[in-house]
Amino acid sequence: MSRERVYLFDTTLRDGAQTNGVDFSLDDKAAVAAMLDRLGIDYIEGGYPGANPQDTKFFAEKKDLAATFTAFGMTKRGGRSASNDPGLNALLDAEADAICFVAKSWDYHVDVALGISREENLDCIRESVAAARGRGREAIVDCEHFFDGFKANPAYALACVKTAYESGARWVVLCDTNGGTLPEEVSRIVAEVVRVVPGDHLGIHTHDDCGCAVANALAAVAAGVRQVQGTLNGLGERCGNANLTTIIPALKLKPEFAQRFDVGVSDEALASLTHVSRVFDEMINRAPNRYAPFVGESAFATKTGIHASAIAKNPATYEHVEPERIGNRRKVLVSDQAGKSNVLAELERLGLSANRDDPRISHLLDRIKEREAEGYAYEGADASFFLLAKDVLGEVPEFFKVERFSVNVERRWNAVGKLVTVAEAIVKVRIGSEIFISAAEGNGPVNALDVALRKDLGKYQSLICGLELIDYRVRIFQGGSDAVTRVLITSRAADGETWTTVGVSPNIIDASFQALMDSVVYQLVRVGATA
């Protein structure tokens, strides 16, 4: 039996950016888009060009993505033509494959918020879709507050959906904008909508204010829609959006959906989902939710006892899916085999081969557990994990040894009478029998240390030329007077490759220097340097 296609639409870079405490740089946006593309997401919404300088810049160049790169914005305003609407023209000028227009579908909002006639609102939808298609773009219409609008005035809400579809929109998306609709309502209302517009042109966009965003999205798919919108780890304003890291494995692995539908995520990509989820949390400087469905650290964890004994004999009796399918792992305190399997999988992913029976693997597993207890986290720091594994396997030469470093931060008046803060660092390095002492100033202590460390590495200097620090994140692993600081540093080489390293210490400067050291050593390893 052939399966119907369900398309995945990610709004992390727009909806997710509305999360309190989350801000994406341009580099962050590019990295997240690339990660989503590798995962197999069909549509990646990059933001709102014209609304702010950063999003406008992000859409200034065409993206090399297999996914349909999508710009978001309003339909044209009432009372003006499409050609005379600055917001619409910013969308048309953006380097995007598709444009997702948000349109009012609740008559109350048309009357009060827009202050135009209901027929004129339908004209705005028609003309916006026509303008996008006229510029060769795929048109998508998000019907804002659709479910509230339907409950208030079903005929008008359906008229908005039908107008968008008949104007040529590829997708008409039903939005539960305030997150107040329940699954039974979603199922009933979607069933009525598919009588007006074919389900393979309908999408669902749900918010989590009632804790039902994922359930509502799945209910909508079961009722007929064939596009699902959501965000990584459920980011979004207020309580968040539908969580794609839950929706994707539910559609892929649950027989009720897997037997009927096909999504664009391969089995191999699905096995990276846990890694993607945790790396993304590290990128936005957020502790991963250990209790998250499918991808959380505790999603397949069981304490010793009757459940653990049963799992040891037959995992399927207590696990609703195999954790390895989404890249997670079983945590049962009766054997270290699950942990060893996870380490071997990580080594394979990083291109390191090892035999399961190699005693060094158990030693590596012990080192990882010790370090995690100290505050290290390797999900978002592949380069540091790579070096740790290579070190245990006896394959990392000692390129150099830092004998000491010091940092001084001084606040003073400069020559023109301006109060400035200056950071100075000194690093003493031994390479073989040679000693190198370098000093540098920076705009902060970490920058000064970074410059000083890379200022003169003797015979290795040419191999680190062009290496630069491009991101720096700090998290307090353990609060209180004995707080432990975790530092993540992302570096970029002259050839454009980037990697992330981690350092942990009660002293933030020491933690930073550990991560800086790992970054330099990783560069030397990757280019094949010898001691």
Automatic annotation (TrEMBL):
The keyword Hydrolase does not apply. Keywords: Acyltransferase, Amino-acid biosynthesis, Branched-chain amino acid biosynthesis, Isoleucine biosynthesis, Transferase. It holds the Pfam family LeuA_dimer. It comes from the Bacteria. CDD domains: DRE_TIM_LeuA3. Its EC number is 2.3.3.21. SMART domains: LeuA_dimer. Residues 6-271 form the Pyruvate carboxyltransferase domain. One of its GO terms (molecular function) is 2-isopropylmalate synthase activity. PROSITE patterns: AIPM_HOMOCIT_SYNTH_1 (PS00815), AIPM_HOMOCIT_SYNTH_2 (PS00816), PYR_CT (PS50991). Pathway: Amino-acid biosynthesis; L-isoleucine biosynthesis; 2-oxobutanoate from pyruvate: step 1/3. GO terms for biological process: isoleucine biosynthetic process; L-leucine biosynthetic process. The keyword Isomerase does not apply. It catalyses: pyruvate + acetyl-CoA + H2O = (3R)-citramalate + CoA + H(+). Belongs to the alpha-IPM synthase/homocitrate synthase family. This is Citramalate synthase. It comes from Blastochloris viridis.
